[in-house]
Write a structure and sequence with these properties.
There is one protein chain. By secondary structure, the chain is of the alpha/beta class. The chain folds into three domains: 14-181, 3-Layer(aba) Sandwich (Rossmann fold), CATH 3.40.50; 190-370, 3-Layer(aba) Sandwich (Rossmann fold); 394-500, no CATH class. Helix content is 46%, strand content 14%. The protein contains 22 helices and 15 strands. The chain has helices at 14-30, 46-61, 72-84, 112-121, 143-146, 183-188, 217-224, 227-240, 253-265, 279-291, 324-332, 352-356, 365-370, 372-380, 386-389, 396-401, 404-408, 412-421, 428-444, 448-457, 459-473, 478-500; strands at 35-39, 64-69, 89-92, 107-111, 129-135, 153-158, 176-179, 194-199, 208-209, 246-250, 270-273, 296-300, 314-317, 343-348, 391-392. The chain has a seven-stranded parallel sheet with strand order 3-4-2-5-6-1-7. Helix 21 packs across helix 22 (478-500). The chain is globular. The protein starts with 13 loop residues before the first helix and ends with a helix.
C-alpha cells in the first residue's frame, strides 16, 4: 500500500464532474466489449477524473478496476488519489510476484511491462476485472495487455489521441473518442495558465529523421550542441526569462550538459537532469528546483509525463520535434495554475510553433482519431518542407543487415528533376527508386522469404521516398499516394519472387 497520511484528495471541478458522468453513461449505454478513448489537455486533471470513474464503476458494477501506467511516478500518484477518496487499491510493482489470496482489493494499478510479465506466467493473475483504464493511452506498449481483458471495457485517457506508432492507429483498439474541454476553454475558465509565446528562427539543416518518425538524438546533438545554438539559447533566456523558474527541454544528454555549463559561466542557478540519474539524485535535483525561486532545470526526456511543478514560469524548447504529442507534453509542464500565476512564457528554439501552431490553438481531435495519417500529413506540411530539410536515418537493425549507403546515395528529388531537365517523365524517378531498393535487397537476401523480411524492414523508407516524389509533383491526393505505395511494394515483391524464389 502507498502511504497517504499526508495526501489530501483533489476535489473535482464542475467540468470534471460532468466528464465523469459522460464517460460512465457511455460505458453503460454501450455495454461490454466497448472501448472508449478520452482526450483532455495536460493539466486538465486526468488522474482525478479517472480515479473518480474507478470509484463510481466499482460501486455501480461491483467489478474490479485495473489501471495501467507506464511510469512508477504515475502509479504512485494514482494510488494516493484513489486511497484518499476511499478506494482500496494495490500497486503491482516489480516486487509483487503473486497476489495474496487473503488480500482483496477493488482496484489494481500496474506498470504495463510488470503486468505483462505476470500475465505471461499466469493469465488469471488479476481476475474479475470489468474496466481497464489506460493512462497516457497514446503509447502502444499497452496493446499487449488488451488480449487478456477482451471481455472488459477499456477506457484510454490521453492529452493527444495520436498513436506513438503511426502504423498502429488508436482507432484499431478504441470504438469512440470523447473529447474533453479544449485548452483555450480551460484557460478562459481559469483552470490553466495561458502561454505567452516567443519564437526564434533556427537553422535545422543537418537534422535527420529516425525510424520513429522524429528527429534523431544524434543529429539533434550536432545541431543544438554547437556554440552558436548555445549562444542563441542564452540570448533568448536573457531577453525573455531572466529571474523566472525555467524548464529547458533538450533532445540529447550532451547538449543538456553543455547548456548547464554555458549558464553556469554566466552565474545562473542551473542543474542538469536526465534518465541516467539515480532515484535519489533525481529527487535531490527536483527538490532543489522546487524550492529555488529562479532555478533553471535543463532536462532530457524525463519530465514530459508524471512531473508536476506548478511554479514553473518559463518553458524553453531547445529542440525540434515532429511529434505533436511531445510538443503538447513539454509545453503542458508550464500550464499549471496558481493564485499568482495566470500566465507562463514559452520560448521555441525548434521552429515547433511554425510546425504545429500555437499551443492554445483549437485542434480537431476527432479528425486526428479517425484519419491520423491525413491529420499528421497536413500539419507537418504546413511548416518548412521538412521532407527535404532532413535526411532519413536507418535504425540499427537495418544498418546491420543492408547496404544503407547505397540507399542513401539515391536522392528522389535530384533524380526527378534530372529527368525533367532531359524533357522526360518525372515518374521514371519512381522506377529508379524501386530498382535501387531491389538491388539493395538482392545484395543481402539469402532467399525469397529473407527478401520479404528486408522489404518489410524498408517499409518506412519506401514511404519516405514516395512522399518525396509526391511533394515534387505537388498535386498528389491521399488516394494517389496509397495507390503509389501499394503498386510500388507489389512490383518490388514480384521482382524479388522472380529472382529469389528458386534459390
Amino acid at each position: 500500500m502507498i502511504d497517504t497520511e499526508l495526501y489530501e484528495a483533489k476535489k473535482l471541478y464542475p467540468f470534471q464532474e460532468k466528464t465523469v458522468k459522460s464517460i460512465l453513461s457511455e460505458l453503460e449505454e454501450n455495454g461490454s466489449n466497448f472501448n472508449l478513448l478520452f482526450q483532455l489537455p495536460t493539466g486538465g486533471g486526468k488522474t482525478v477524473i479517472f480515479s473518480e470513474i474507478a470509484k463510481k464503476y466499482i460501486e455501480k458494477w461491483e467489478k474490479k478496476v485495473l489501471i495501467l501506467t507506464h511510469r512508477i511516478e504515475l502509479s504512485v500518484q494514482t494510488s494516493k488519489q484513489l486511497s484518499a477518496i476511499g478506494v482500496e487499491n494495490k500497486v503491482i510493482n516489480s516486487d509483487v510476484k503473486k497476489l495474496d489470496e487473503n488480500e482483496d482489493f477493488d482496484c489494481y494499478i500496474a506498470m504495463v511491462e510488470t503486468l505483462n510479465n505476470r500475465l505471461h506466467e499466469n493469465e488469471n493473475f488479476i481476475e474479475g476485472v470489468g474496466l481497464v483504464i489506460v493512462d497516457e493511452a497514446h503509447y502502444n506498449s499497452f496493446r499487449k495487455i488488451f488480449q487478456y481483458y477482451q471481455s472488459a471495457n477499456i477506457l484510454g485517457v490521453t492529452a493527444t489521441p495520436l498513436s506513438s506508432n503511426k502504423a498502429l492507429p488508436l482507432n484499431d483498439n478504441y470504438n469512440k473518442l470523447l473529447v474533453g474541454e479544449c485548452i483555450s476553454s480551460l484557460i478562459e475558465s481559469g483552470y490553466l495558465s495561458d502561454a505567452e509565446t516567443f519564437t526564434y528562427d533556427v537553422n535545422l539543416h543537418g537534422l535527420k529523421i529516425g525510424s520513429n518518425g522524429d528527429f534523431t538524438v544524434s543529429s539533434s546533438e550536432m545541431v543544438y550542441g554547437n556554440f552558436f545554438m548555445q549562444e542563441k539559447l542564452l540570448f533568448a533566456y536573457e531577453e525573455v526569462a531572466v529571474g523566472n523558474k525555467t524548464l529547458i527541454f533538450n533532445s540529447g544528454i550532451e547538449t543538456s550538459i553543455r547548456v548547464e555549463e554555458t549558464f553556469k559561466k554566466r552565474g545562473y542557478k542551473i542543474r542538469h537532469l536526465d534518465s541516467t540519474f539515480s532515484e535519489k539524485d533525481r529527487k535531490d535535483v527536483l527538490e532543489w528546483f522546487k524550492v529555488t525561486p529562479d532555478a533553471i532545470l535543463s532536462s532530457v526526456g524525463i519530465l514530459t509525463t508524471g512531473f508536476d511543478e506548478p511554479t514553473v514560469e518559463t518553458i524553453i524548447l531547445n529542440r525540434a520535434t515532429r511529434s505533436l504529442t511531445l510538443y503538447h507534453q513539454m509545453i503542458g509542464r508550464g500550464s499549471r495554475k496558481l493564485p499568482n500565476k495566470s500566465q507562463f512564457k514559452l520560448i521555441d528554439l525548434g521552429n515547433n510553433v511554425r510546425r504545429f501552431g500555437l499551443w492554445q490553438d483549437f485542434i480537431n481531435w476527432q479528425d486526428a482519431f479517425r484519419f491520423p495519417d491525413r491529420f499528421l500529413e497536413s500539419r507537418l506540411s504546413e511548416g518548412d518542407d521538412l521532407e527535404f530539410e532532413v535526411v532519413y536515418e536507418f535504425n540499427r537493425m537495418a544498418r546491420e543487415r543492408m547496404d544503407v549507403e547505397m540507399l542513401d546515395s539515391f536522392n528522389m528529388k535530384d533524380v526527378y528533376y534530372a529527368y525533367l531537365d532531359k524533357s522526360e517523365k518525372g515518374k521514371l524517378a519512381v522506377d529508379d527508386s524501386l530498382e535501387n531498393h531491389f538491388q539493395v535487397i538482392m545484395k543481402s537476401a539469402k532467399d525469397f522469404y529473407d527478401g520479404l523480411d528486408l522489404l518489410e524492414m524498408l517499409g518506412e523508407h519506401i514511404e519516405y521516398r514516395l512522399k518525396q516524389y509526391t511533394k515534387c509533383i505537388a498535386k498528389s491526393t491521399p488516394n494517389y499516394f496509397k495507390y503509389l505505395m501499394e503498386t510500388y511494394i507489389r512490383q518490388l515483391r514480384q521482382k524479388l519472387r522472380e529472382n529469389l524464389e528458386d534459390e
